[in-house]
C-alpha cells in the first residue's frame, strides 16, 4: 500500500508568505494546508493531524505561544514536530519547538529544514 504524502500545516497570517512556503514544500512532494490564526490551527490539527507544523508566533485571535503550549500539553499532539518561523526574538524558551527560524527566511531553506524534521514514517 503506498504511503501517504507527508502533510505540513503552515500557520501564518501573511497569506503571501504562507503561499511561498506551501509552494516550496509542494516542490518536495509535501502536501500543505494553511491556517491564518491559532484557533483555526488547533481546529485543523484536530480534524487532520499533520506530520509537522510550521508556526508563526505573532498571529491574530490566538498567538503562536499559546498554540505551542496547548499542543505540547496535549498527549494527542505533543509528539507533532513544530518549527517556529518568527519575526520576533523569542526570548522565552520554546520547549515544544524542534527549531526556531527568524524571518525573513528563504522559503526554500524553510522547506529544506521541514524535510529534515519530518518523522521517518512521513517520508
Number of strands: 5
**Uncertain spans, ≥5 residues at pLDDT below 50?**
none
Gyration radius, rounded: 13 Å
β-strand percent reads: 15-25%
Quickly give the structural class: alpha/beta
Give the full name of the CATH homologous superfamily: Response regulator
Mean pLDDT: 90
Q: In total, how many domains does the architecture comprise?
A: 1
Q: Which sequence of SSEs, written as H and E, runs from N to C?
A: EHEHEHEEH
For the record, give the distance between the C-alpha atoms at the N and C termini, rounded to a whole number: 14 Å
What is the number of helices?
4
Shape: globular
Instruction: Give me the side-by-side strand order of the main sheet.
Output: 2-1-3-4-5
Summarize the structure.
The chain has 123 residues and is an alpha/beta fold. The chain is built from 4 helices and 5 strands.
In words, what does this structure look like?
There is one protein chain. The chain has 123 residues and is an alpha/beta fold. It is built from four helices and five strands, in the order βαβαβαββα. β3, α3 and β4 (82-86) form a beta-alpha-beta unit. It has a single domain (7-112), classed as Response regulator (Rossmann fold). Strands 2-1-3-4-5 form a five-stranded parallel sheet.
Topology, element by element:
Elements (H helix, E strand, L loop, with lengths): L6 E5 L3 H12 L4 E5 L2 H10 L4 E4 L8 H10 L8 E5 L12 E4 L4 H11 L6
Parallel strand pairs: 1-2, 1-3, 3-4, 4-5
Helix pairs in contact: 1-4, 2-3
Record keyword descriptors for this entry.
single chain, alpha/beta, Rossmann fold, 35% helix
